[in-house]
Amino acid sequence: MSRHQGNDKRNPGSGRQGGYKKTSHSRGNAPVRSNSSGFSRNENKSAQPKAKPASDDIRLNRYISNSGMCSRREADIYIQSGNVMVNGEVVTEMGYRVKPGDVVKFDGATITPEKKVYVLLNKPKNFSTSADGVRSNENVLSLVKNASKSQLQPVGRMDKTTTGLLLFTNDTELITKFSSPNQRSSKLYHVSLDKNLKFEDLEKVKNGLYIDDHKIFVEEIDYIENEAKSEIGVKMKTANVKIVRKIFEELDYNVIKLDRVTFAGLTKKNLPRGNWRFLTEQEIINLKNI
């Protein structure tokens, strides 16, 4: 096989009949056929189907996404705009595949893909998710710093006083997905109020409340069994804990404690406060399929 075969975009059968060439010997004007088919047997061995991409090749947009720069969809825009180079040449082709050893530059910076890491933390009180205090010991990132050398980010935000489940990852696509207002995964919150929640107020929340000219709906709301009427369970789609607080503040209740009990099918089972764990393969698959 020619060393260029597989990379040559020309028709491998051009200038040939059926992809194989006839023998060069002739008798008068009629070609001499070396076998009954009229083609050389040795030529059969040289014609191979176009090589498939190697299993370790990766689409350029995924390579960029795996490097943590942006999502695959955003990477397509950068590629089309001519902001991505492979081995010193600008690549604008959609579907271009990066091979092992290729040097990829994104906006002038050399990038490398990272293994995706997914960490679930049971966040304690008095730790912030604010990007302003990333290096602070009071930032949630200080709690998961030993989980990975990769730069992890929290999925969503929590104020200092809110506790419970918080997911971290370097998977920018997953972060973008769960940051979308259209994200439809359920979260369960345990809310502790400064006084008992009146039944009529519980019904108001169940039927939907207007907050800042937007009607807010919950999936479920109820008193927590065997607890005081100030202990409420609220199930909602939103990952914005501020909305949960505002619901009760709108009805003149103060939220004393707010704890996220479940997040997109993940639970606090066997995960004490302040501890973290890696997600299982099945949990990762479930998150991506939501």
The CATH topology of the largest domain comes to Alpha-Beta Plaits
The best one-word shape is elongated
Helix-strand pattern = EEHEHHEEEEEEEEHEHEEEEHEEEH
| β-strand number | 19
Under CATH, the homologous superfamily of the largest domain reads Pseudouridine synthase I, catalytic domain, N-terminal subdomain
- What is the arithmetic mean of pLDDT? 82
**End-to-end C-alpha gap:** 47 Å
Measured by DSSP, the beta-strand proportion falls in 15-25%
Derived structural class: alpha+beta
Helix content estimate: 10-25%
Determine Rg (CA atoms, Å): 30 Å
Count the DSSP helices: 7
CATH class of the largest domain: Alpha Beta
Total domain count: 3
The poorly predicted ranges are: 1-46
CATH architecture type of the largest domain? 2-Layer Sandwich
Keywords: Isomerase, RNA-binding
Organism: Flavobacterium haoranii
Pfam family, one: S4
GO molecular function, one term: RNA binding
List keywords for this structure.
Structural Genomics Hypothetical 15.5 Kd Protein In mrcA-pckA Intergenic Region, Chain A, Ribosomal large subunit pseudouridine synthase B, 20% helix, alpha+beta, 4-stranded antiparallel beta sheet, 9-stranded mixed beta sheet, 3 domains, RNA-binding, Alpha-Beta Plaits, PsdUridine_synth_cat_dom_sf, 290 residues, single chain, 7 helices, RsuA_PseudoU_synthase, elongated, disordered N terminus, rRNA pseudouridine synthase activity, Pseudouridine synthase
